[in-house]
Each structure stands twice: as C-alpha cells, then as structure tokens.
Amino acid sequence: MTDAPSKSGPSIWTVPDGDDRRRLTCPDCGFISYDNPKIIAAVVATWEGRYLMCRRAINPRKGFWTVPAGFLELNETTAAGAAREAWEEARVSVEVTGLIGIYEIPRISQLYVIHSGRMTTPDHAPGPESEETRLVAWDDLPWDDLAFPSIRWSLERHRAGLPPAVTAAPEKAP
After folding, report:
1. What is the pTM of this model?
2. In the chain, what are the domains?
3. CB–CB of 111/39 below 8 Å?
4. Neighbours of 131 (CB within 10 A)
5. Could you tell me if 28 and 7 are in contact, meaning their C-beta atoms sit under 8 angstroms apart?
6. C-alpha angle 91/96/101, rounded to 5°?
7. CA–CA distance, 14 with 7 (Å, rounded to integer)
8. What is the per-residue pLDDT across 43-93, written as a single tens digit (0 to 9) for each?
C-alpha cells in the first residue's frame, strides 16, 4: 500500500461548484476538464477573380472540394490560422483581407471562422492534406462536390460582398 494519490485524472462526472453543467473532474486534485468546441479557421482565397479550391486527401469527405481550412492552433489568431492553412493545404501565401463570417455547427461542437484573402501569387500546389488544388472561376466551382455546407455558405457570401454574419448550421446534417 502507498499513501501516494492515485493520480487517476478526470474520471468522475459532476457539477462543479459555481457551474451549471456536468464536467469530468479528478477526484484526487479537483481538476476540471472543460471540453469546448473546436474552432476551424478558413480562408476564401482568390487570384484575379478565381477561387482557390482544394480537393481533400483526408477524411472526413476525402475527395471533395473545400477552401483552405483547419483547426486553429494554440496561441494563434483566426486570421493567422487561415493563412497557415492556405500554406499547408495549397502552398500559397495569402493576405487576409477581411472576415466573411462565423458558421456555427453545434451538433458537432465546431465553429468555423471564415476569412477572405488575396493570394500573393497565382502559384499553388497540393500540400499533404490535399489531393489537388485549382484556381476556379465562379461558374466552374464544383458545387455538387463541395465537402461541407459551410464552404457553399462562405463562397456565396464572399461573392455577394455581404458583411460578416453569424449563421447556425441546420440541426441535422444535410
């Protein structure tokens, strides 16, 4: 036997003092695990009126088209995250020029922060998470093969020049 704490980590569901919902807590030290939504940073990047599109090389929705997007890293702004994702997925440098909006998906605890951006050159190439990349005119966008509803929403808002908005996704996946 030992007198050392068990170091079991967060293993008990309870409502902590001052809170209003159940959280996973550690019985040994009182640590509370706050499981929060994931933030996705994205950029609708353009070059001379054409849109940068990436065909996903990873799941979910492998083989479908998206704009550069991915999970925000610690200590990163959403604009910096969007620019980083453009480089990681399409090997492009972008100047983030504005905010298109926030697309909320509560059913999967995700929040998309989607920016607009200008590519600094027309050069692009697939990064490790993309099968291919293309600069596409509006009329040639692969509407039937977009990976997620948030991509259509962001492209349409960008094209219309609408001010930033917050939109919640439908409760059920399309």
Report:
1. 0.86
2. 38-168 (3.90.79.10)
3. yes
4. 14
5. yes
6. 115
7. 18
8. 999 999 999 999 999 999 999 999 999 999 999 999 999 999 999 999 999
